[in-house]
Each structure stands twice: as C-alpha cells, then as structure tokens.
Amino acid sequence: MKKNMSSYDKLIRLIVAIVLIVLYYRGILSGTLGIVALLVALVLTITSLLSFCPLYTLLGINTCKKENK
Q: Where in the numbering of this chain does the Inner membrane protein YgaP-like transmembrane domain appear (predicted)?
C-alpha cells in the first residue's frame, strides 16, 4: 500500500471520527444511524492510521506530498 493521504487529511478524518463517536455516546445519534456513524468513524480512523484510502485510489486522488528524488 502506497500512502495517498496528507497529514491534514488524516487530522480531519480523526476529528470527524471523534465527533461521530461523541455524538453517539451522548445519545444524539442512536439506533441504526448511530451504528452507521460508529462504522464510519471506524473506517475513518483506520484509513487515517494507515495513511491510505482505497477510495482515493479508485478516484485517482493523492493528497500526500510527493517527494522529489
């Protein structure tokens, strides 16, 4: 897996994941919507930690800075 996410992209994903988790545990998001929010938070966290987004690969997006060789 080649990294395709910048540090800003990873930070935004982690912030969104934290917000979704807080909304779930505060009871604002509940039921099916709450479960979906937790799953989205899990995916955002995993992709952020790996610095790789499979959807970016499919769409040809790369937010990672390219190193000059």
A: 1-66
To the nearest 10°, the Cα dihedral for 20, 22, 24, 27? Answer: -140
* 7-44 per-position pLDDT tens digit: 999 999 999 999 999 999 999 999 999 999 999 999 99
pLDDT value, residue 67? 55
b/e map 12-48, b = 16+ CB within 10 Å: ebeeebeebbebbeeeebeeeebeebbeebeebbebb
From the list 3, 2, 1, 5, the residue with the least C-alpha distance to 63 is 5
* Cα–Cα dist 23/35, whole Å: 11
Residue type at 22? V
pTM greater than 0.70 (yes/no): yes
